[in-house]
Amino acid sequence: MQMDSTSTVDMIAVAKALGDETRARIVGVLGVRALCVCEVKAALSLSQATVSDHVRVLLEAGLLSTSRESYWTVYSIREDLQPETHQFVSLLVEQVHAQFPEDRARLADAPVFLCRAEAKTGSVAGHPRALHRKTRRT
Prior knowledge:
Elements: H1 11-18, H2 21-30, E1 35-36, H3 37-44, H4 48-60, E2 64-69, E3 72-77, H5 83-99, H6 101-109, H7 114-120
Antiparallel strand pairs: 1-3, 2-3
Helix pairs in contact: 2-5, 3-4, 3-6, 5-6
């Protein structure tokens, strides 16, 4: 996270991070509620790798906070942003919602905490440990 000596967000880093349409759309859906990567992926119809890469940039710019929910990390827009930064992000969220209404529609259609729902149904893709299991070759 890029901060100056007074613990404020570096506005140049924020501007660079939000200058990308995909990252702006991610902030747009995070303006609805806190989400895991799976939910962002479903809302924006992107790959998990793409979402993760863009979320990393937003984290480094100091715009997002994280919390843990079992195996998953949940992302949200930081609540302690400077008033000017918060106002800018709020305006951006409004514009993204107006310009990309399908993102919010897909988010509304997806189950809350999609990863957990997939893990409960036994979906291999939804279970974090399934990717690390070794299979025996006979």
